[in-house]
Design brief:
The protein has 15 helices and 21 strands. By secondary structure, it is an alpha/beta fold. The strands form 7 sheets. The chain has an 8-stranded parallel beta barrel, surrounded by 5 helices. α3 packs parallel to α5 and α9 packs across α12. The chain is globular. The N and C termini lie close together (6 Å).
């Protein structure tokens, strides 16, 4: 069967500033929360590999963009580093702005549409010291940063993203202790989540009120929650997981309001943060022009198997347990289930229940450990990645045929990059990065993806 996409469909890749640029302190950049986290807790990072040891896109962007051009990708989502562009959090570094401008110009000259994300996990540490996303002062500073970016690059950038996966710093930083500031406190998590949503809303409203050219949206990692069975207890467990980890950002970003069931649940357990009506109105008026969806794996849950100690700290885990479905197909390197149906279910849900908003797949990919074992004649034969992308694109195509307003697909990532606590443990790239000499070489998937783009579809 032939799966053909529209002529203007985005086939691209996604990356981020922290994961590709390198620290480059000599260039004026101040530390981000990730630079600080590595400084104080290097043992948390795989092989103690920190964010300074990324692949040097800041220096090598021209060569990397030429490789993108040769591959044929027509869009590229990356982020700006707030700590690099405005080292003190408030004032522009002219040299950094000029470099970012040249990067964007190089993309456009290569026929690649730049999709620019303002915040991809890397909060300036100076802002973290002011309270991070628990602080109203940081919200104000973020809006100023967003305005600076719109003013500096708005003539070149037509597609903006406020936040990438805003639920992840909330989970990692305040619920499950895997992002700085390494806390486990639901009240702080709820406050950080609300303040992030408010910062997003204010930036979106500013963008629309100032009538900047182009479109603005948000990227959410939507992980569908599937119940173990149709038993009401399992169904409820999946519903609550979905409320916490999907709808807590999806509903206010698309509908301007929080789910009533989530509000009622938090109120029942006295966990609802105190917010002002003015702030709720700001969120209510913010409407994104497009949505990016990051999808890697499903979430499978079941009703709690053990009772909760009522004296224990409140957590989302009070309401569900993870469920390992028999027969599931796994990426054993990452510990994630491979389930292409999930991407179809997400797009169908957005079509049926969220006004069929314009959406693109902003990340989808497969990270594999020790890819050197698959090298044949000097090239990584990553047939597993080709199969993964193919299956997910077929699911995307099916959703589009049924009416989904999906206009693009971005694989994560173009060249192997540094991946937060995982360092270079799991490789995602279409191009292999040799850590000894930083040489980039195409994997089999790069050639396959180039043919896919050239043919505007697959068999």
């Amino acid at each position: 069967m032939r799966y053909r996409f529209t002529d203007n469909f985005w086939f691209g890749c996604a990356e981020s500033a922290t994961q590709t640029e390198g620290f480059c302190a000599a260039g004026g950049k101040t530390p981000s929360n990730w630079d600080h986290a590595f400084k104080i807790s290097p043992h948390r990072f795989f092989n103690q590999t920190g964010p300074e040891e990324t692949r040097g896109f800041w220096q090598n962007y021209r060569e990397d963009i030429q490789l993108m051009r040769e591959t044929g990708i027509n869009s590229y989502r990356t982020s700006l580093s707030w700590a690099r562009l405005m080292p003190d959090g408030y004032h522009l570094d002219e040299a950094a702005a000029a470099r970012y401008r040249d990067i964007i110009l190089c993309l456009k000259e290569a026929g690649i549409e730049p999709i620019i994300t303002l915040m991809h996990f890397d909060l300036p540490f100076l802002m973290q010291q002011k309270g991070g996303w628990l602080s109203a002062q940081v919200i104000d500073a973020f809006v100023r940063y967003a305005e600076t970016c719109f003013d500096q690059f708005g003539d070149l950038v037509s597609h903006w993203i406020t936040f990438n996966e805003p639920i992840v710093p909330v989970e990692g930083g305040y619920l499950y202790d895997f992002h700085y500031p390494f806390k486990r406190d639901f009240a702080s998590a709820a406050r950080a989540a609300f303040n992030t949503q408010l910062a997003h809303a204010r930036a979106v409203n500013l963008f629309h009120e100032r009538r900047y050219a182009g479109k603005i949206g948000i990227v959410l990692n939507l992980t569908p929650s599937y119940p173990r069975s149709e038993h009401p207890a399992d169904v409820y467990a999946a519903e609550v997981a979905d409320l916490f980890f999907n709808k807590s950002f999806l509903e206010p970003s698309l509908n301007g309001r929080y789910p009533e069931k989530l509000i009622a649940l938090l109120k029942h357990y006295d966990q609802l943060p105190v917010v002002s009506e003015d702030d709720l109105q700001i969120i209510a008026h913010a409407r994104v022009d497009m949505l990016g969806v990051n999808y890697y794996h499903p979430r499978r849950v079941q009703a709690r198997q053990t009772a909760i100690n009522p004296a224990s700290p409140f957590m989302p885990d009070w309401f569900f347990d993870a469920y390992e479905m028999p027969g599931r197909i796994m990426n054993t390197s990452r510990g994630w289930e491979i389930y292409p149906q999930g991407i179809y279910d997400i797009l169908t849900d957005l079509r049926l229940n969220y006004g069929n908003i314009p959406v693109f797949i902003s990340e989808n990919g497969m990270g594999v450990e020790n890819e050197e074992r698959w090298i044949e004649a000097g090239q990584v034969n990553d047939a597993y990645r080709i199969d993964f992308i193919r299956q997910h694109l077929i699911a995307v195509h099916q959703a589009i045929n049924e009416g989904s307003h999906c206009f693009g697909y971005h694989c994560w990532t173009f060249i192997d990059n540094w991946s937060w606590l995982n360092g270079y443990k799991n490789r995602y790239g279409l191009y292999r990065l040799d850590l000894k000499n930083m040489q980039r070489t195409p994997k089999a998937s790069a050639q396959w993806y180039a043919a896919l783009i050239k043919n505007n579809g697959l068999n």
